[in-house]
Design brief:
The protein has 365 residues and is of the alpha/beta class. The chain is built from 14 helices and 12 strands. It has an 8-stranded mixed sheet with strand order 3-2-1-4-10-6-11-9, sandwiched between helices. The protein is globular, with a radius of gyration of 21 Å.
Length: 365
């Protein structure tokens, strides 16, 4: 049975959060429930997540739980795409939740934009009891101009390419709604072989194919950003090779010829500098990395001088980068592993002294 909106929720070992997530979606009036289907894709959870989802499915006819073997979040989202019946697709992370009235608000907006390929929204970011707005736009806007869509596509890789004054990442799928027949006609799925940034890559491809995009200043979503003990801050010794797989995939796409490609090239260089900086925390100088400091600095120098990082460091426009990444880029041009270590140590000390959150969120996009 066709629905207006399919809400796809990949689930893996989130028994602590999934009840709040599902209640926030399903606490709506009967009219709204008729418009939606909720596809919970249990990606081989070993805790009570799947059973909790099954309880909701017994209570709500619009909830369908799909139990599958563990293959990762990209495969789980793709399973949802293949099984969905809604005209529009919306992805929700199972440890997040929706604002009261959020589902109804999304339904009202998409009903007014039948000719749009993808709808972009805003959100709230929640850290513990603190909340702030996750802002992408200064006003509502419809994009049909190729140059504007390319700049938005560049913003998926590196947010300041879209809006200089803000750096709220734009690569996640939960602040967007996708027209299902647009995705299927263009064979758009999450790349399952990528271990990181698959959501960023998916949205980059989506905007590469889109011909009309709507931006609306509604905030239906609460994104839960974790603190320093988050999994996103654990040691990832393979992060460099995982990132390089992303760059290779992106450069293999047939999107780099034509009008306004200089925008995408510039954004790509900035994205690689940003990801290199993230590697300093997750890989090179992570406290779980037991190599000697001399070996760490030598490895960083090796990565800096390898492609595509060498090209990124030496061709990125410094004016495109936020100030911290300007310093990273300049240090990279010197091929200085020790310089990168000193930068990392200084920023970690400042972060500790200011009591700031360490990390780039659940997705480093």
């Amino acid at each position: 049975m066709n629905k207006l909106l399919s809400i796809i929720i990949p689930v893996y070992n989130v028994e602590k959060y999934i009840t709040k997530c599902l209640k926030s979606i399903l606490t709506v009036n009967a009219e709204t429930l008729e418009l939606i289907e909720v596809l919970v894709v249990d990606d081989g959870s070993t805790d009570q997540s799947g059973r909790i989802a099954d309880e909701f499915a017994r209570k709500y006819q619009c909830v369908n739980v799909i139990h599958k073997q563990n293959e990762g979040v990209a495969a789980a989202r793709n399973t949802g795409i293949h099984r969905a019946h809604g005209k529009w697709l919306y992805f929700v992370d199972s440890d997040d939740w929706l604002e009261k009235g959020g589902v109804r608000g999304i339904c009202e907006v998409v009903q007014k934009h039948t000719d749009v390929d993808v709808l972009l929204m805003e959100a709230y970011q929640n850290v513990g009891h603190k909340q702030k707005e996750w802002v992408h736009f200064s006003e509502d806007e419809d994009l049909t101009n190729t140059e504007r869509i390319r700049r938005l596509q560049g913003g998926i890789l590196y947010a300041p390419f879209w809006r200089k004054a803000k750096n709220d990442p734009m690569g996640a799928p939960w602040d967007k709604v996708y027209r299902r027949d647009f995705l299927t006609a263009n064979h758009l799925l999450f790349c399952e072989r990528l271990k990181v940034l698959d959501d960023m890559v998916f949205n980059f491809e989506v905007l590469g194919a889109a011909r009309k995009v709507a931006c609306r200043k509604i905030k239906p979503y609460h994104y839960r950003r974790f603190v320093t003990d988050s999994i996103t801050n654990t040691y990832k010794p393979d992060r460099v090779s995982q990132d390089k797989a992303v760059w290779n995939y992106l450069f293999s796409l047939e999107l780099w010829n034509g009008e306004d490609m200089d925008i995408l090239q510039g954004a790509m260089m900035c994205r690689m500098i940003k990801s290199f900086s993230i590697c300093c925390r997750l890989c090179f100088f992570n406290r779980e990395n037991k190599r000697r400091l001399k070996e760490k600095a030598a490895y960083v120098k090796h990565v800096i001088e390898s492609e595509p990082y060498y090209t990124a460091f030496h061709t990125v426009r410094l004016s495109d980068l936020e100030w911290k990444l300007k310093v990273v880029a300049l240090t990279g041009r010197l091929s200085s592993g020790w310089g990168m270590y000193l930068l990392h140590a200084a920023w970690e000390t400042l972060r500790f002294l200011k009591g700031q959150i360490s990390g780039d969120g659940k997705c480093c996009s």
